[in-house]
Amino acid sequence: MNKRIMWLDGLKGLACIGVLAHHFLVAFLPATYYGDVNMSKLQNQGDVLLSQAPYAFFINGNYMVALFCLVSALVLGLKIMNLEKKQDVADMFIKRYPRLMLPIVPIIFSVYLMLKYECFAHLQTVSLTQSPWLGAFYLEKVSFKRCIDGIFVTTWYTSDSTFSNAFWMLGSLFFGSMLAMILSMFTWKIKRNAVDIIYVFCILIYIRVNTLQLAFVLGVLLAHLYKERKGLFHHRWIGMICLLLGIFLGGYPSGVMPTNIYRYLNFLPPEISAFQLWHIFGAFFTVYGLWNLVYVCKVLECRFMQFLGKISYAIYLIHIPLLFSGSCYVFNRMMELGRFSYLKSVGITFIFTMLCVLVLAYFYNRYVEGWCNKWLNMLLKKISVEEKDI
Predict the structure, then answer these.
(1) Are the CB atoms for 83 and 1 separated by under 8 Å?
(2) What is the dihedral of CA 206, 207, 212, 217, to 10 degrees?
(3) pLDDT tens digits, residue range 227-281?
């Protein structure tokens, strides 16, 4: 088994914090996403400028999602390509769906109860922030049957956002993981040059299909290049150029048609989403660029970044219900008191949100995800066929 590349975990955690920051800003400073001057809350309309500024890549949620998915595929690819016992891949296939599905159960039933007892505070907030996104979710109660459908079916097959706006990505994460594992196994039997051709063909197909699963193909490609062509790595200047290119593409705006330098990237046919394609390739160049920059990778290996990586899935699951309930309640109270300006209220709410997310994600990872993994391992051990029987 290959040694785990620790900085990838840190990068995954950083990507989830970026998704959180994106959603927070869309809720409380919506002009940073929509680019609408009528929504501006900053002097000189600085939030409007952020909506298409290249340096605002870190608050571009779609880019951060692409980064998260690409890193997930890269980690899976490296693990499978270097398996000593090939039958272990069966365990990975069997565990993938319940590994992703079981942790969403408490979130779905929590949202069910919060809707039933009217615990969300976002509708009052909308009148203050003018965020269309904030006013589009958690508008009506849901049935118990809808919860069961969300747990087992609609979240994974229809990108259902009933219980969390962030859940749209989970279906892509699941099926993209399956795709990544299958493509990784090609390296066991097929010659290196033939694998390259297969991966390039898949890249072209998924560009045309216009789905997030392109990120998983590119993640597996990076894993393959690292395993078979190590000479392409550890070049500092190439790394810096690719990193800058990656974050530039990652800054391509999602909520507004660009009028600045990004307008030159608007040459794609209408059936291909420009922001999604550029964000996915931005994620590819970002990861490849970082891989060539040893000192930056060392930063991502620090204890706090590793902590973020460990709780990244929990952060992704819990942050939307928290934003629409606790964060909006705190913001509403700050504005009602009248002691703080709009921006100070946003700042206090952001600190509250970050602290709550980190604490809740820690316990969620430790007790909910930890229990799920323990249960899955025990079940798999009981139902697995003995190696001598294979």
Answers:
(1) yes
(2) 50
(3) 999 899 989 999 999 999 999 999 999 999 999 999 999 999 999 999 999 999 9
